[in-house]
Amino acid sequence: MNKYIFSVLLLSSFSTLNYAHEPYVAPLSYITSNTQTPVISAYAEQALQPEYALKQPVFNIIQPDQSKISIASESTLKSANLIDLPLPQKGTYLISSQVSFPLKYAQHNKEWKSFFDMPADKAKPIKERDYVIPSDFKKAPTPIEITREWSIQSYISKEETSPIQSVIDSPIQVEFKTHPNNITAQQPIQIKITKYGQSLKAPELVIRAQGQEEDEATHLTVDTSGFAILNFPHAGQYLVEVSEKSDKTAKPTNQYYTIISLGVLPAIK
Asked: What residues contact 125, with CB distance under 8 A and at least 6 apart?
């Protein structure tokens, strides 16, 4: 990961998954009996290992009785955002936020690639990167701008789980057939993925255990109806990431991602 690029992107309100940093939100504990619990969010290159704070995120909470509240992060940390989530009711809380940034793309050798206005001495050779910079072109390119949006989500249960009756407002929806706080290691579960209520044409589904980088992710198959099977090898924290594969030869359009943090329980012996 080119740290210079990501630092520049953050300062200029740009960010991209091409450089492995992804936003996430996760509680300190997915199942608790506490009256309140800390929730952390950040950009991370290694899954669930915070490195850069999000920019003024607001978290939307659906409580067990289906009432809704919002909590803005007032954290001043540079590496992460932190909020206190009150837990007045028994049952499951859904927490979510949206993170979006404008991105520039330029066409290079008939392929559309991320475009960054940065000096050549700060970039790797073009063969070693999947983005382009001004010096890659003989004539100045005419970039186009799109929006990339992430919906970051998690589930927290106080003392007991309760039915998930509401859905989080995001273009890409992930429905768990097993309660997210009842998932155990080595026990396959089914999910259904939709985009605006329809199956994705080219879904991309990956799982990363805590600490794993993008090239260590497990890629899973999604059938034509949007169903997929998840099987977590060990207990611990994971990120489930859903997006749509892009055609590099087609003109880019707005991109949507859903990233869900899960706490997987030990395998049943």
From this structure: none
Cα gap 211→49, rounded to integer Å: 6
CATH number at residue 13: 2.60.40.3760
- For residues 261 and 54, give the distance between their C-alpha atoms in angstroms, rounded to a whole number: 16
Domain count, the chain: 1
Q: What pTM was computed for the model?
A: 0.91
Strands (E), 109-143: 111-115, 131-132
Question: Locate tokens 């940093």: which residue?
Answer: 21
Mean pLDDT for the stretch of residues 57-86: 96
- Check whether 114 has a pLDDT greater than 80: yes
Say which residues have a Cβ less than 8 Å from residue 58's Cβ, sequence separation at least 6.
70, 71, 72, 73, 97
Is the per-residue pLDDT at 15 higher than 50?
no
Residue span of the structural domain in which 254 resides: 3-102+146-264
- What does the alpha-carbon distance between residue 214 and residue 17 come to, in Å, rounded to a whole number? 9
Count of C-beta atoms within a 10 Å radius of residue 92: 24
Mean pLDDT of 183-194: 98
Distance, in Å, from the CA atom of 201 to the CA atom of 215, rounded to the nearest integer, reads: 23
First to last CA, the chain: 40
Question: CB atoms < 10 A from the CB of 85, how many?
Answer: 20
Tokens found for residue 137: 């072109």
